[in-house]
Write a structure and sequence with these properties.
The complex is a heterodimer of chains A (261) and B (155).
Chain A: H1 15-18, E1 26-31, H2 40-53, E2 59-63, H3 73-77, E3 105-110, H4 115-131, E4 134-142, H5 146-159, E5 164-170, H6 179-183, H7 185-194, E6 197-201, H8 206-215, H9 219-223, H10 235-254
Parallel strand pairs in A: 1-3, 1-4, 2-3, 4-5, 5-6
Chain B: H1 4-17, H2 31-39, H3 44-55, H4 61-83, H5 98-124, H6 148-154
Classes of the chains: A alpha/beta (261), B mainly alpha (155).
Chain lengths: 261, 155
């Protein structure tokens, strides 16, 4: 994976459309929930680490109520992440409490069944929220599974140009390809309409991924030897983690205008 | 000679004496909600889902679809009756001097013009709500993804 593989067309920024202010005051980055197990939380956790590395304060919100324990954002970052149940009459209004104050970036990991609620919330609150200088980046993760592509397209059908799109091609398997993402009529139409920024997440050894998820350990924890998990203290794990982390950060660097206010 | 005022009163008495008609569809109480959801671009399937989850009403996609279609056609019919030969019950006119009537009619005509202009302007105004005004991209989640190579092969 090299930085030249980033297909980043004109920054895909819908920010000007989103806010009437010249400079956005805050950016909300939300994962497009839907298909489970595609690596949404790994990407969001990686993003949180990237902000940490660059000493940019960020509010982490875990709205993935289905991902109750292992592998959730709360699990990776412990007490720093409030877990919010959006399946209440107020829905995503808990979001609003974080919009007026606090860090300039909100990172929200959405759950699998969050689509309809999020879409309705956007319909109801989008204008007043953007008038306050808030812009949105929707992060979609696609794998070889067509279901992951359908998830992203379903969200795009509802969100339209109200967000900027960042798509992560997650090579979740060591064989296969992104045929449905790259070669289906519907995915092409989405790409031609919104010009999403596209980055890659390379293949990761499943046993290492599983250990990280099961113990709630981030790549940075492994690299900086901050974990007590013996299998993640081994040099081979540390070196692998270092490689994954470096490549992931390099990809985020390519699309940083979609990740910063 | 027929006394119209007396006839109107008779009609009104008959109408008042009749009990209100029960809604024909269980969706009738949710007509406004359904109409609004359609305006906001929700599919019939989504509306059926919302009705079940939020209102506890179980209705199939086709039921919702038929309800919207029937209502749309009956609204059109209603409008044409009012505009055409339909008879409406109005209070009996009160006699006034001719000059007063003419001035009032002119005022009312001017007022009507202004109201119609406002209505037209309102109709043409783009929606300021948070909803998407026009979809640039459409995806039907009920349709499978179509590979470009397959489509070209079929052609």
């Amino acid at each position: 994976m090299s930085s030249s593989s980033v297909k980043h067309q004109e920054a895909n920024t819908n920010d000007r459309k989103q806010t009437t202010e010249t400079a956005p005051r805050k950016r909300v980055i939300l994962s497009m929930g839907g298909k489970g197990g595609v690596g949404k939380t790994s990407v969001m956790s990686g993003l949180a680490e990237w902000y940490q590395e660059n000493q940019i304060p960020v509010t982490l919100l875990d709205l993935d109520t289905e991902n109750k324990a292992r592998g959730s954002l709360t699990h990776f970052f412990g007490g720093q992440v409030p877990k919010i149940n959006i399946h209440t009459p107020e829905g995503l209004d808990a979001f609003l409490d974080y919009l007026d104050s606090g860090p300039p970036i909100i990172l929200a990991d959405m759950g699998g069944a969050s689509g309809q609620i999020t879409h309705a919330w956007f319909d109801e609150t989008y204008n007043p929220v953007t008038r306050r200088g808030i812009v949105f980046t929707a992060v979609g993760v696609v794998t070889f599974d067509p279901g992951s592509v359908e998830s992203v397209l379903t969200w795009a059908d509802r969100l339209q140009r109200r967000v900027s799109y960042l798509i992560v091609e997650n090579q979740s398997d060591d064989h296969g390809d992104f045929t449905y993402w790259r070669e289906s009529e519907q995915a092409r139409a989405f790409q031609e309409t919104f010009h999403p920024a596209v980055i890659q997440m390379g293949y990761r050894l499943p046993h290492l991924e599983a250990a990280l998820r099961n113990h709630g350990v981030t790549l940075t924890d492994v690299v900086k030897r901050r974990t007590a998990v013996s299998e993640l203290q081994l040099s081979k794990a540390v070196i692998r983690a270092e490689g994954y982390r470096e490549r992931m950060f390099a990809q985020f660097e390519q699309v940083k205008e979609l990740l910063l206010p | 000679m027929i006394n119209h005022t007396a006839m109107d009163e008779t009609f009104q008495a008959i109408l008042d004496s009749l009990p209100p008609k029960q809604p024909r569809s269980k969706l009738e109480p949710y007509a406004e909600l359904i109409q609004e959801l359609r305006k906001r671009g929700r599919s019939y399937r989504e509306i059926a889902g919302i009705l079940e989850q939020r209102c506890g009403i179980k209705a199939g996609t086709h039921t919702v679809y038929n309800f919207v279609r029937v209502r749309a056609s009956s609204t059109k019919k209603g409008k044409s009756v009012k505009a055409g030969t339909g008879r409406s019950i109005q209070p009996a006119p009160v006699a006034r001097p001719v000059s007063e009537v003419t001035a009032a009619a002119a005022d009312s005509e001017r007022g009507n013009d202004e109201v119609w202009q406002r209505i037209q302007a309102l109709k043409q105004r783009t929606t300021a709500g948070g909803e998407v005004e026009k979809k640039e991209f459409q995806f039907d989640e009920n349709e499978p993804l179509r590979l470009i190579s397959d489509t070209q092969h079929k052609k």
